Amino acid sequence: MSLFRPDVERIAGYVPGEQPQVDGWTKLNTNENPYPPSPRVVSAIRQAAEGRLNVYPDPVGTGVRKAVAELFGLDPDWVLPTNGSDEALTILLRSFVDPRELISYPYPSYILYETLADLQGARHERMLLNPDWTWNLDAARPLVEQSKLVFVPNPNSPSGTRWSDETLLKLIPPRGVFVLDEAYGDFADEPHQMQLLHTDAGRQIVVTRSLSKSYSLAGLRFGFSIAHPDLIAGMRKVKDSYNCDMISLAAAEAAIRDQEWMRANRDRIVATRQRLATALADLGFDVEPSQANFVWTTHSSGEHRDIYTRLKERKILVRLMTFPEAIGGKTVEGLRITVGTDDQIDRLLEVLGEIL
Amino acid sequence: MSLFRPDVERIAGYVPGEQPQVDGWTKLNTNENPYPPSPRVVSAIRQAAEGRLNVYPDPVGTGVRKAVAELFGLDPDWVLPTNGSDEALTILLRSFVDPRELISYPYPSYILYETLADLQGARHERMLLNPDWTWNLDAARPLVEQSKLVFVPNPNSPSGTRWSDETLLKLIPPRGVFVLDEAYGDFADEPHQMQLLHTDAGRQIVVTRSLSKSYSLAGLRFGFSIAHPDLIAGMRKVKDSYNCDMISLAAAEAAIRDQEWMRANRDRIVATRQRLATALADLGFDVEPSQANFVWTTHSSGEHRDIYTRLKERKILVRLMTFPEAIGGKTVEGLRITVGTDDQIDRLLEVLGEIL
């Protein structure tokens, strides 16, 4: 007799990218930012640690909501801080989707959405992207129309490509919520400034953001959602009372208030990304033009597993990704490579040159 | 048209105790520890902040699991770290309870269980305690037998009373999981050392612990669950991949490894608790003998709301608690007062002396 819910018994659980807990790896597999966070973050953490850790944190995160609101020109009631944007995705499922209702998302993309739907007992459908990562809107429309939640990461992973607001507006479910997952939003050439929220459909849109990538704070677990206050108020009922701790609230506020630091790191990453893409092409790879802090690349040999394994033997981790049953029933396979420091990328290119 | 799930639309959301974000309050309402956490915690946080916040934390919290396992003489596979023990309660509902299944819990007790059940679309039933806070096991049994989860806080809140292992063993649901919520466990005269897990029924028991109270870390959000590895493995599928951040993992490990600090604070609180109980009795209050870091007290005048309000006017916060429809259909009402520092308790007693 299993005591677990059948939905839990059935699933394998999501497996995140490898996280070796020892030093010595060139880690280009989980889209972490290779640069440290703002020194103001470290000061804020030190100050919070010497403060009043014995009392509960502000349950609604007043300070950080204010900082986010100022950044995007919104009222703080539009902002919900979360324990990483992962928690926001869980809250969204639990807020809007009942068992057997439908969620849909583009494919190939972030398959965590399927695990979250399975946990909620919900159905999930993949909206197959064209081989050039554009949308087949005619094929997507019937799924969008039936969906309670549509998740769209933009820029998308693993492709690093970005869709226009005009395309996104066609994906809003008539009786549901559109989640624009902008974990990589800050790396785009023209970062999204929440224009979509000011459209007629704005009351059905939730934008999720993460401090893990652009703010160099994957270790901190902090994200936030932006949406109409009616949506935020309901989502707040679903979250744990004190979902964000005192230290991450203080650190996140300091990080968001140091835009200069974040932008300088982003610019460095964007420059390295260009260099990486050019060098990979010289080595015979096809490289998708990226708007994120990683590139999606395939090799004409098709030997992605072999390249991944041989890099790993040399202590370089990239992400081997396989998406069966993509458009036309074909498997999409390739390597997703995080844009590291210039030194890390030099090391990668050097080893790739030896391997190929 | 509401976009929310009907279950979410229906609930009001849990309202935690008041958390004034300004100084100047004598805060005796949310069972925080008045003493600071171990200096080793502050060092661990500083070190983590200067470390690698740009990379993801260890998703399974190896270091802190080892520290907990050593403390209780278990294997680390018996331990699941969570973002506060609140997150553990949410994970338990999502792991074991499908919509319309039953959870039950003693009453008066921690009503958050009802909110969590409502969010999951589950049913909840109260097992009415006798006026002296003992169990009516005959009345409880039919509910226990139908329950998928039975939640029992021990020591209980608001009473501060503690039930024997012998009683608890009679509350294990034959086809479900028994959750022993030990948020206040360290304050008991004989803190529970997980003996229940080694009984035949041990495979159906989950013990939850919090660092918020005894370790003075309410601001940090860290808790852990202890259970048979089969239960922990399934619960791990339900949690977010990186549910605990790098700083709280490091801080929690340091806190748990400094038992001396925790015990010294606990002993101080237990001594102050005794003094508070005696002084309240002298002021005409009935005081329930407490095994926690708070006392439950009633006044023969029945003017609890008035006392609460007049204390609040003097910037002293205690918790006014009202439990309608307790045993015999009667309302249970009283004040739950956190055991603060001796100075805080002196101030409370002084003002109470003026009010009464």
Sum up the structure in keywords:
17% strand, alpha/beta, Aspartate Aminotransferase, domain 2, 356 residues, seven-stranded mixed beta sheet, 12 helices, 2 domains, homodimer, Aspartate Aminotransferase, domain 1, four-stranded antiparallel beta sheet
**Major beta sheet summary of chain A:** 7 strands, mixed
Work out the count of structural domains of chain A: 2
Output the CATH topology of the largest domain in chain A.
Aspartate Aminotransferase, domain 2
Q: Name the overall outline of chain A.
A: globular
Low-confidence stretches of chain A: none
CATH class of the largest domain in chain A: Alpha Beta
Helix content of chain A: 25-40%
Tell me the CATH architecture of the largest domain in chain A.
3-Layer(aba) Sandwich
Give the neighbour order of strands across the main sheet of chain A. Answer: 2-8-7-6-5-3-4
Largest interface: A-B, 82 and 80 residues
- Content of β-strand of chain A: 15-25%
N-to-C SSE string of chain A, H for helix and E for strand: HEHHEHEHEHEHEEEHHHEEHEEEH
CATH H-level homologous superfamily name of the largest domain in chain A: Type I PLP-dependent aspartate aminotransferase-like (Major domain)
Computed CA radius of gyration of chain A, to the nearest angstrom: 20 Å
Oligomer state of the chains in this structure: homodimer
Average pLDDT reading of chain A: 96
Your description of this structure?
The structure is a homodimer of 356-residue chains. In chain A, strand 3, helix 5 (112-119) and strand 4 (123-128) form a beta-alpha-beta unit. The termini of chain A are far apart. The radius of gyration of chain A is 20 Å and the shape is globular. The longest helix of chain A has 24 residues, at 259-282. In chain A, the strands form three sheets. Chain A has a seven-stranded mixed beta sheet, with helices on both faces. In chain A, strands 9-10-13-12 form a four-stranded antiparallel beta sheet, with helices on one face. In chain A, strands 1-11 form a two-stranded parallel sheet. The model of chain A has no long low-confidence stretch (mean pLDDT 96). The first copy, chain A, has two domains: 6-36 and 260-355, Alpha-Beta Complex (Aspartate Aminotransferase, domain 1); 39-258, Type I PLP-dependent aspartate aminotransferase-like (Major domain) (Aspartate Aminotransferase, domain 2, 3-Layer(aba) Sandwich). Helices cover 37% and strands 17% of the residues of chain A. With 356 residues, chain A is of the alpha/beta class. At the A-B interface, helix 1, helix 2, helix 4, helix 8 and helix 9 of A face helix 1, helix 2, helix 4, helix 8 and helix 9 of B.
